[in-house]
Amino acid sequence: MSSPALAAIAALPQADLKSIFTTDPDRLSKLVLSQGPIRFDWSKTHLTDDMLTQFLALAQEQDFAGWRDALFAGQAVNNSEGRAAEHPAERGEGNADSVAHAKMLHNRMRGLIDAIEAGALGEVRHILHIGIGGSALGPKLIVDALDGDGVRYDVAIVSNVDGTALERAIEGFDPHTTLIAIASKTFTTSETMLNAASAINWMVEAGVDDPYGKVIALTAAPEKAMEWGVDETRILPFSESVGGRYSLWSSIGFPAAMALGWDAFESLLEGAAAMDRHFRLSDPAQNAPLIAAFVDQYYTRVEGCQTRALFAYDERLALLPSYLQQLEMESNGKSVTRDNEPVVGPTAPITWGGVGTDAQHAVFQLLHQGTIITPVEFIASIEPGHVLDPAHHRALLVNCFAQGAALMRGKENADDPARAYPGNRPSTTILLDDVTPEALGALIAFYEHRTFANAVLMGINPFDQFGVELGKEIAKSIEANGPTGFDPSTMALIDLALGAE
Predict the structure, then answer these.
(1) CATH entry, 95-260, from 3.40.50.10490, 3.40.50.80, 3.40.50.10090, 1.10.238.10
(2) C-alpha–C-alpha distance, residues 446 and 441, integer Å
């Protein structure tokens, strides 16, 4: 390992989780941290005092404090593209000029929402949000998680270019009372623009007067939206320095602000801003995103774990694993450093997961008895999201906590090895007071900063994503020039599936 701190960590003996609370009775005071409405518990991981000391040294080696300051100062932390990464400014934390600009754009969005609610665009009962990647995953997570708080419009969010997705989204929607929000940073994303064109055709075929007058554009390229046919008054810009997978705080959050109300959207921003301040100002040894990154680095780079599992024991957070797949793997799934040198060792693990007790009856067999060791993260809420018998929520939480205990403790059975559990398997628990806009904002910002902290510790740039480009370039070439020059397998597939067109 190239890092002296990582080499020192690798040389340390791994603690036995089954007895770790006996050998380290103060673990809860050191490895449980409460920040606002969220409690983080890393005590059932293998992190020890000696490891923490070395990880703090690694953070110093990698100039964590300097990179963190650069992030909030609006400097070009995305060095490969020469850009800042100013999603914290959308929450009011960061470079003063950028914060003021974000506030101005938020006020513009609120003004348009007020006008829509006052009837400026006619009756609106449905919102069709069209985007892909971060332009869809963020709003979809927020609306799905908080819809119990009284959603004011029917919201459908479409990302897949498969026409079936769009057909299902508009099923039951009245085109005469539907507002279309098109979310694309460049306003050229091929899948998004094809879906948008089909949505306009749906309105035209239904006899809607001026379908383009029912379109809201959410973009960092307002001139492209105007060329496409959207009036300037219905364009909600956001800054070029806000990356797609970090953009839900900007005008990309328009459908959430419409559906949940502006107060809820502001609470989401305020919750994230509180986590920003914690990340920016806290001592490294008490910094939740940084400690979480230490745990990630240990299991991925020291122990060689290739996956990290996340299970939300709350139906409201069912989409969180999907959201984090993009955030973590698109950000840190890299093979070169900021200096374009090969990365020594692994970078991001594969993020996967599921929901609560469903997953227990599907994939937990592997987690408890399989040969692949997978760090597990449990997320739950003290307060339920329903008014049914409290027995439902009690059973949910009991199962959540029992799974973490079982992974750690295990169970011996010399007479029947098939019924033995090795134990000593790590887990983290994140416990929310409730799934509120404030708590959700803080939770998502925690994951953003954790991703950034991991990138700093590995010396990589988490803000570009060139790996997604090659396949798209080839697809565009096939559309423009036909299938030529490909391998026999690809040519056969194209000929079989598309040859008759």
Answers:
(1) 3.40.50.10490
(2) 9
| Domain extents in the chain | 4-14+30-82+270-462, 95-260, 467-498
Superfamily of 4-14+30-82+270-462 according to CATH: Glucose-6-phosphate isomerase like protein; domain 1 (3.40.50.10490)
60 within 8 A of 71, measured Cβ to Cβ: no
Contacts of 146 (CB under 8 A, 6+ apart): 256, 260, 264, 316, 435, 436, 437, 440
Give the burial class of 226: count Cβ atoms within 10 A of its Cβ; 0-12 exposed, 13-18 middle, 19 or more buried.
Answer: middle
501 has pLDDT over 50 = no
Q: Do residues 218 and 251 lie in contact, with contact meaning Cβ atoms separated by under 8 Å?
A: yes
Tens of pLDDT along 461-483? 999 999 988 888 888 888 888 88
* Catalytic choice (386, 472, 476, 479): 472
Q: What is the mean pLDDT of residues 360-376?
A: 96
Backbone angles phi, psi at 340, to 5 degrees: 65, 30
pLDDT band, residue 316 (cuts 50/70/90): very high
- Sign for the CA dihedral angle at 49, 349, 39, 77 comes to positive
> Catalytic annotation on 361?
yes
Residue 227 falls in the annotated catalytic set: no
pLDDT at 481: 80
pTM above 0.90, yes or no: yes
Active-site annotation holder among 171, 361, 469, 501: 361
Q: Is 44 a catalytic residue?
A: no
> Among residues 86, 328, 330, 448, which one is catalytic?
330
Pairing verdict, β 215-219 and 235-237: parallel
H runs (alpha helix) in 32-91:
49-61, 64-73
d(CA 77, CA 83): 7
Q: How far apart are CA 441 and CA 450, in angstroms?
A: 14
Residues 326 and 343 sit within 8 Å (Cβ to Cβ): no
